[in-house]
């Protein structure tokens, strides 16, 4: 009987990577595509996230969309975009940081 080493990954994607939301034909997130958000969804918040994503440079936006909304791993994204995995991680990190900056005023409004 073969025993799996404790650091080996199980076959198949883990739960947090199962997000098959599709983009609209225009390349935008559908209003229902905010992952891990319980119903009912706030359409205003979703539009704010879409606008913030649209403000990111393509090099940051694509890795975020592929990772967060399509559930792809960084290695898969790197292969699809013809980049190194490290480059994809850096772009995603910078993009997520910029999204936090862009969405900070919205968070401040809701915390009042």
What does this structure look like?
The longest helix is centred in the C-terminal third of the chain and has 26 residues. Helix 2 crosses helix 4. 53% of the residues lie in helices and 0% in strands. It has 4 helices and no strands. The radius of gyration is 16 Å and the shape is elongated. It is an all-alpha fold and 112 residues long.
- How far the N terminus sits from the C terminus, by CA atoms, comes to 59 Å
Structural class: mainly alpha
Unreliable spans are 1-20
* Tally of DSSP helical segments: 4
Helix proportion: 40-55%
Please tell me how large the radius of gyration is. Answer: 16 Å
What value does the average pLDDT take?
A: 77
Note the beta-strand portion: under 5%
The beta-strand count equals: 0
How would a crystallographer describe the biggest sheet? none
- Taken in chain order, the helices and strands follow as HHHH
Shape: elongated
